[in-house]
Structures are given as C-alpha cells and as structure tokens.
Design brief:
Structural class: mainly alpha
Shape: globular
Oligomer: single chain
CATH topology: Four Helix Bundle (Hemerythrin (Met), subunit A)
CATH architecture: Up-down Bundle
Order of helices and strands: HHHHHHHHH
Distance between the termini: 25 Å
Number of domains: 1
Number of strands: 0
CATH superfamily: dinb family like domain
C-alpha cells in the first residue's frame, strides 16, 4: 500500500466513525459537559468540553489542515459555513477555555453534520492530491524534521483519532454504549 492510500484509508475510517458516533445523539447529549469529582487543584468545579464543541473543533481543524496542505481554502471559508452556522470565521476552537465553551451557542446537530460531511469529503479529495514527494517536504526550515507527512500524521490523523476517543469517552460517561 502506498502512503497516500494509507492516509486516505485512515482518514476515511476516522470520518466515518466520527459521523457514526454523533449521528444518534440528542441535542442534550451533544451539549452535556462532564464535570468530574475530584478535579485537580485550581480546576475545581470546571466542566470538560461537550461533544458538540469537540465535534465542531475536530471537523473545523481537519478541514483547515487538509485544504491548507494542498494550497486550497477550507470548505468553511469557500462555502461560508461560518455564516450558516453563525460562528466566528477565524476560530477553530484550539485553546478555548472551558468556561468560554460553556457560553458558546452551537448550531443544531443537523447543521453540524451537514458541515462535517462537506468538510470530510473535501479532506478526502485533498489527500488524493498528496504525493510521496509532497509528504517528504519540509514546510518550515526552522523545524527540519517536521515534514508535511509528519504534519498529516500528527495534526490530521492523530488529532482526529484523539478527539474521536474523547467523544467516545464522554458518551461512556453518559451511559451510552460504544460502537465496535
């Protein structure tokens, strides 16, 4: 199997699994914030991120990364999803404090799923444009070991599977059985 075929297969599995995990959740389940007892000092009483935030952030990040890697604007920008979803066009959720997440107004799950389906389809098309040569390119001379391939590994696949794990964990905290 060629590297690009592997990336396409792994990304396809990731996006399919992510959509399957959120499609049957209720609005209340999408918005539920875990609040563990025994929080570390300084974090007492703070909740974790809800599924709707993690799903949006993960999707927005994949959309941004995949398109940037092949020199194209993200679906978020081209199709003006920020307008449709009434969200800040520049944000993708990275580093958002939990207190701010709790204040955010999220679009409906139907709207988020529609954006995710378009963004994920765009990501899979972008992956087809990658080549072994492109994957081996150093994108920042100050970080010569950070090739485009390593970025895809860390920021697309690793990041995506990590957030899918969070979604599954939160569903487990709510007593929702996992998928196999």
């Amino acid at each position: 199997m060629k590297t690009v075929d592997f990336i396409h297969s792994a990304l396809s599995d990731l996006t399919r699994a992510t959509l399957a995990e959120v499609k049957d959740l209720t609005p209340e389940q999408m918005a539920w914030q875990p609040s563990p007892s025994g929080s570390p000092p300084g974090l007492a009483g703070q909740a974790g991120n809800p599924v709707n935030f993690i799903f949006w952030h993960m999707t927005r990040s994949l959309d941004n990364f995949c398109h940037r890697y092949v020199g194209k604007p993200a679906v978020w920008e081209v199709e003006k999803w920020h307008d449709r979803l009434r969200m800040d066009p520049t944000k993708q959720g990275t580093g958002t404090p939990v207190a701010e997440v709790g204040q955010m107004a999220f679009p409906s799950k139907v709207e988020l799923l529609a954006y995710a389906e378009r963004a994920y389809a765009g990501c899979l098309e972008c992956v087809k444009e990658l080549t072994e040569e492109k994957l081996n390119q150093v994108t920042n001379p100050e970080r010569p070991t950070m090739t485009l391939g390593r970025q895809v590994h860390a920021f697309v696949l690793g990041h995506g599977w990590w957030h899918l794990g969070e979604i599954r964990y939160i569903k487990g905290l709510m007593g929702i059985p996992g998928r196999v």
